[in-house]
Design brief:
2 copies of one chain form a homodimer. The first copy, chain A, contains 15 helices and 12 strands. With about 400 residues, the first copy, chain A, is an alpha/beta fold. In chain A, α4 links the parallel β3 and β4. In chain A, α2 runs parallel beside α9 and α10 packs parallel to α14.
């Protein structure tokens, strides 16, 4: 059964080169990189190589600025809680936005129980934070600004460089959650001017459950995992070497192939947006026309439920999503879409279509054709739609 | 180059069945278990199966009591910080022992910066905590007792059942770091009566960078990783499915083969201890004669440095260690050995020999023969040894 995966944001296929590297690592069965004798040296070297590939992908000043983690969520928790706790003597105020991922929102909520105050900025109708509002929100007590690079539900990209500049001028540490950006769009931590940046391996077709945190040299941050001296004393625990090897290989190829991949994704997105009006009507595009990821389109289809569309497409072997996979099980409308000013009804009609290097134009056309028939069927039984027709 | 691995405590080989399961998982390339459509269902099922195998290995009341983590260190950090922060309103006092792993020690040190007080109990000459001292140390402010199940440097096993009984009577949450025990000796969380128990996959020949935390139903503990709703809302982040599959398979075999493995290890240990006096003299055994792991022997060889012995054995392609791999890079004498009452000089002469299901009697004999010549060489140039001969 071939499934058309248009839910890349929840999971991307493993690159065949990453698969090969991981299988070779399993067969090789490395020793612990921290062990004292020569069996560990080879493992330590492999770990260094992966760190270098990842550091190059985001242009670190040195590979030592990379800490390997168990994924984007750990990176975000490490950055936010680690900076907050390490700098609490200076103050207990944090600035963020209303459209962050749950990893950010809930890390901040946890800090509130430890006495931290959080200013959460609203976004404009396009889903973007106004850098001036960040500047205005910073006080003498502010120890951290955390604004995501791109949004996982709408694909909208934030003015990170401008915000980083403001944070730097005001001597406040700046973290960006770039989990959906690294390996998809060019990311240069030095050009962006951020202090911390979270990313995940699966975004660039590496394995799940592995990620990293960029920590600019000299940034004051506590470890989230205390214990051994691994990761230059920044993250304790014996490494997931097999996963890290897969991520290293995926990072190497993401850097090498960034341009052709970008072109491919941009073409698919243009095709989808151009063809959409030929298949359905009365929908809202939640994706910023200029500042957005090339691999994601969010649309709210009026008068029907996204959940029903998703399930009917699933019957046609087409996978899309209605929200972040991390929020599955929650019945509430997405906080991201409500922040854009969407009504509850329109937010409930939302579909997120995300694609990747393995997606073809035929996949997009097959989706559109299924979508047309699903929307027609659902609107035929929609009281909202009948009502709208009568007025 | 065949290396005789007598440093199983720092890394064990992957079981061939675990390798096969992981390679199959890589080739299969599962979708995200949390995704909304049917692609995710198969992955969710595989995740459930692994959870069941692990739950059975330690006899949980329900598989939901298992939280998958990125390894023993994360489990320990989650347990200690999570219980402390979730129960801080009751009090800010924690009881532990002097011989815990760095993951415990440093998690507690981190909590001290948040106002927690820690009572750290000494051990007797055999390396064991006296349960009565735990009872005496508990106050109205105590929210957590954390005592390890077995020590990673000496192999000594603590009276966990007795301590758990005391904690339960005094209504204090009890965590045990069983990272070096689960899958090696029988562990039954219900019989032990613990509230939380940390373990790691590699201890039972699964992959590194994966582990778990047993949380008894109803135990009040905050997540360490906040974000999505994975792991029954107890640990956010997309799962390391490949690693978890490897751990699940390894757990299944650890349960099936526990007895024959135990017999094999006990035989090796008896052989080593019986033969040792035929090869070297003047050493101290740091391993408890009755309560200790079957796969580890710690000995302090007088007048010489363990570090030098380890390096010379490494030249003979025999891997042993002088301390926890997590403490490599530290030059200080082991806090565990000093707690047993060893002098600094004797502590520096310590070797940890740890073996596993792949170790043979020939390996043990090859080690002993190399050890004899290394010890002779080193003592010939040891001023301490010459001095001791003269007196």
């Amino acid at each position: 059964m071939k499934i058309i995966n248009l839910d890349h944001i929840s999971s991307k296929p493993l690159l065949s080169e990453a698969k090969k590297a991981m299988i070779a690592a399993i067969e090789k069965d490395y020793h612990n990189p921290s062990s004292q004798h020569k069996s560990g040296e080879e493992a330590a070297e492999v770990l260094d190589n992966a760190r270098e590939s990842v550091a190059q992908l985001i242009n670190c000043a040195t590979p030592k600025e990379i800490v390997f983690t168990s994924g984007g969520t750990e990176s975000v928790n490490h950055a936010i809680k680690g900076v907050a706790m390490a700098n609490a003597e200076k103050g207990k105020h944090i600035v963020t936005s209303n459209i962050e991922h749950n990893a950010v929102i809930r890390s901040l909520r946890r800090l509130k129980t430890a006495g931290f105050k959080v200013t959460s900025l609203s976004v404009d109708a396009g889903g973007r934070v106004n850098p001036q509002e960040v500047a205005d929100a910073i006080t003498d007590e502010t120890v951290l600004v955390s604004i995501m690079h791109s949004n996982n539900e709408t694909g909208t990209i934030q003015p990170i460089e401008d915000i980083a500049k403001i944070a730097r001028e005001k001597k406040v540490i700046f973290h960006t959650d770039a989990v959906d950006s690294v390996g998809v769009v060019p990311i240069d931590v030095q050009a962006l001017g951020v202090d911390l940046l979270s990313f995940a391996s699966n975004t660039f077709y590496g394995p799940t459950g592995v990620g990293g945190l960029y920590i600019r040299r000299g940034t004051r941050v506590f470890p989230l995992l205390d214990g051994g001296i691994q990761e230059n004393n920044k993250r304790a625990g014996t490494e997931n070497l097999i996963g890290i090897i897969g991520m290293g290989k995926a990072a190497e190829l993401a850097e090498r192939d960034l341009k052709p991949r970008l072109n491919h994704l941009k073409n698919l997105k243009s095709k989808l947006l151009a063809e959409l009006p030929n298949y359905i009507d009365e929908y809202i595009l939640n994706t910023h026309p200029e500042f957005s990821l090339p691999n994601l389109v969010s649309l709210s289809i009026k008068y029907i439920e996204g959940e029903s569309v998703m399930l009917m497409l699933d019957d046609d072997d087409i996978a899309v999503s209605t929200r972040s996979a991390c929020a599955t099980g929650s019945l509430r409308a997405s906080h991201v879409l409500l922040s854009l000013g969407l009504s509850h009804a329109d937010a409930q009609g939302t579909l997120v279509i995300s694609f990747g290097i393995d997606t073809t134009e035929e996949d997009i056309l097959a989706f559109l054709s299924s979508l047309k028939s699903v929307v027609t069927t659902l609107r035929d039984i929609s009281p909202l739609y009948s009502k709208a027709r009568l007025t």
